[in-house]
């Protein structure tokens, strides 16, 4: 089944070339189906790339999904045109009286700042508080996961000695949880961040369950005991070339960039990496939409 996105969204052309099933409002309205309404708070700087990455995964399920995009009102991104934001995005004040079946909060390039020093932190706190009663299930990615762990459960992040970047081996801890149905006992996933959270704090928190972790990259996948919040510290949505683009960007900026671990063949940036996480990315998003959104959300919000 398709995802329903604005007809003129640039990511549409990318997805259609990959045979991802998308539709516009006209066709969606002709179907007598209760679609899922998903709101994506996109905090990533290159918003159009993130849109395509997430829509690719949300569009590969048997459910019709209406997608809306949210950006912060207290900070305007410098890497996307104002016209793009005006055409495809809304702000919290416009949707705070609505209900959504699911919400995704992306990562953001502000990891090295204390949460309280992020210029849109108060706005994000308001959105996360609103989500408790207005959203059935929330999926938090990378910095978005760390923000959720801090706001909802009091678990703070800490700075790493060097950036955690690469494709890392992970171990599944509980295959019986619906979110990881179909997962292999061991799998790969990309990480790209400067901070981490203490795994022991997650294990000891009575409101959280650790589902997967990596010896090199730390805790990876967590779910709240009430199953309302899912936190992913990595980037399963990344395309195969994303880490290479980040490495090239950091190198060009003169930063102390390290070659992403276990990514380029023989650690040679001139060689093309391969995708080792695509199937688990699709499986996680499919499981989330099915078991935690579609199966749990009311047909009609009160």
UniProtKB/TrEMBL annotation:
GO terms for biological process: L-methionine biosynthetic process from homoserine via O-succinyl-L-homoserine and cystathionine. The keyword Hydrolase does not apply. It comes from the Bacteria. Its EC number is 2.3.1.31. Pathway: Amino-acid biosynthesis; L-methionine biosynthesis via de novo pathway; O-acetyl-L-homoserine from L-homoserine: step 1/1. It catalyses: L-homoserine + acetyl-CoA = O-acetyl-L-homoserine + CoA. The record marks 111 as: Important for acyl-CoA specificity. Belongs to the MetA family. HAMAP family: MetA_acyltransf (MF_00295). This is Homoserine O-acetyltransferase. It comes from Oikeobacillus pervagus. The lineage of its organism: Bacteria, Bacillati, Bacillota, Bacilli, Bacillales.
């Amino acid at each position: 089944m398709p995802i329903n996105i604005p007809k003129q969204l640039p990511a549409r052309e990318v997805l259609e070339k990959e045979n991802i099933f998308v539709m516009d409002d006209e066709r969606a309205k002709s179907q007598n189906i209760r679609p899922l309404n998903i709101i994506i708070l996109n905090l990533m700087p290159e918003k159009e790339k993130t849109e395509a990455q997430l829509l690719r995964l949300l569009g590969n399920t048997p459910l019709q999904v209406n997608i809306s995009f949210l950006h912060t009102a207290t900070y305007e991104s410098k890497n996307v045109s104002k016209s793009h934001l005006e055409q495809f995005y809304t702000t919290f004040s416009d949707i705070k009286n609505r209900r959504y079946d699911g919400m995704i909060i992306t990562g953001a390039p502000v990891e090295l700042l204390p949460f309280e020093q992020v210029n849109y932190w108060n706005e994000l706190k308001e959105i996360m508080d609103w989500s408790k009663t207005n959203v059935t299930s929330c999926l938090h990615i990378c910095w978005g996961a760390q923000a959720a762990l801090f706001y909802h459960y009091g678990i703070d992040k800490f700075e790493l000695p060097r950036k955690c970047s690469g494709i890392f081996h992970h171990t599944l801890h509980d295959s019986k949880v619906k979110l990881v149905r179909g997962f292999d006992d061991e799998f790969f996933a990309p990480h790209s961040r400067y901070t981490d959270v203490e795994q022991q704090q997650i294990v000891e928190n009575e409101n959280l369950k650790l589902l997967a972790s990596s010896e090199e990259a730390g805790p990876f996948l967590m779910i709240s005991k009430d199953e309302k919040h899912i936190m992913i510290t990595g980037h399963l949505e990344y395309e195969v070339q994303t880490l290479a683009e980040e490495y090239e960007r950091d190198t060009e900026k003169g930063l102390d960039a390290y070659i992403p671990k276990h990514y380029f063949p023989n650690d040679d940036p001139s060689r093309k990496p391969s995708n080792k996480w695509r199937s688990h990315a699709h499986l996680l998003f499919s499981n989330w939409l099915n078991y935690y959104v579609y199966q749990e959300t009311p047909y009609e919000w009160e």
